[in-house]
Amino acid sequence: MKLYNSLTQKIETLEPIVPGEVSMYVCGPTVYNYPHVGNARPIVVFDTLKKALEIQGLKVKYVSNYTDVDDKIIHAAIENNVSEKEITDTYIKAYAQTRSDLHADQPDVTPRVTETMDQVIAFIQKLIDDGDAYQVDGDVYFRVSADSKYGELSHQKMQDLMVGARIDENDKKENPLDFTLWKATDEGIQWDTPWSKGRPGWHTECVVMIQDVFKKPLIDIHGGGLDLKFPHHENEIAQCECINHTHLANIWVHNGMINIKDDKASKFEKMSKSIGNVQWAKDLIAEYGGNTIRWILISTHYRAPLNLSNESFASAQKELGRIETAYHQAQVKLQLEGAKTSDEVDTTLWQSFLNALNDDLNTPNAISTVFEAVKQLNQSLRTRQIDTAKVGSLLHTLEKMLYVLGIVFEPVVLTEEDKETYQAWREAVQAKQFDVADTYRAKLQAKGIL
């Protein structure tokens, strides 16, 4: 498996720290609302990556957190007159449901910030003790100058960042680039610390949870959306460099953003709450189904921007229909022939599929191989004498591909009555009794057999 490493800006071979095992952490959501389609993209991208690694024999430990303490959560709790935990529990459940609806596995571990607070406080105290952080009036800031490599992930120089920084005359920070580790506050949920009663800043939690869950400072893959690269992931690295003298992860993987078509203006615009074009994942899934939304999310390379439009949904449904038709027809034919399900794969097609995924998770090329498998399956089904071994092998290959891509079709299972109806339909067709044949056809179509 080769992946584009945002840190080095090169495609690199994944070489697990522990042979045969991959440690992967993906930044999770701040849970104050339902997941939108932008949140769904990393869910699908990294689930596909996980499945692609596992199907090739690697053991993957996949961790993704929930940020369950944040100003937005506190304001939502106040607005709804409930506790912060009621807000976060509601939307954590919603995220888990969206994962299931998109046929994504739940992460192996889903740590919450509120359940890791002792470790967060101890981490911040160590940064202070080492001179990498400082406190002012109960607030604690990370001293960016403590990391001489700051900016290495986003490939920006500190002096350039300084030029673009907004400087507040009343700022307590030594440097406008310094970021908050702890915020003194009397609003919302709070914890007691040696510095003040308050809550943590956003950039510390992931570093702490990685160390806490994996029990080591360096993991194989750290992932998330491109919008997290700076400053969030940059700040994670800075803290890890100061405490552990490592990059936190060997490979940094970032998925691209989503653009929504404005039909009135006939152009694509970046999905943004300020523009008001946010599309909720649950609404899209309810309208189009989990398969369609997942297919769209993998139809474009994960690093590229993804353009969503009514046309893209229609195209995805049409493509999935072609695949499902071949999938079901093959199942029907094999059952009618009394053939057993094959456990063999077409090695050429399967290797082509894996090669695409191993090339920086190139799902568009992998999808091309899926269509080649469908083409060959259709050709095999049209022959006068069905080669059940070949059809079985192609069907099994297609099933494995769809599993990795997260596409789920309900299998067709024929009853004896179905088989009798099918035989009666064929006999009616051969006898040119088309009205009778149409009656049988309708029964078979209703069960997805024809």
Task: Give me a quick take on this structure.
This protein has 450 residues and is α/β, with parallel strands linked by helices. Helix content is 48%, strand content 15%. It has 15 helices and 14 strands.
Largest sheet data: 5 strands, antiparallel
Rg is 26 Å
- Proportion of residues in extended strands: 5-15%
Oligomer: single chain
Global shape:
elongated
Helix content: 40-55%
Strand segment count = 14
Report strand order across the widest sheet: 5-6-7-9-8
Please state the average pLDDT score. Answer: 94
Account of the protein in words:
With 450 residues, the protein is α/β, with parallel strands linked by helices. The chain is built from 15 helices and 14 strands. Strands 5-6-7-9-8 form a 5-stranded antiparallel β-sheet, covered by helices on one side. Strands 4-3-10-11 form a 4-stranded parallel β-sheet, with helices on both faces. Helix 7 links the parallel strand 10 (219-225) and strand 11 (249-255). Helix 8 (281-288) packs across helix 9 (290-299), helix 10 packs parallel to helix 12 and helix 14 runs antiparallel to helix 15. It is elongated. The model has no long low-confidence stretch (mean pLDDT 94).
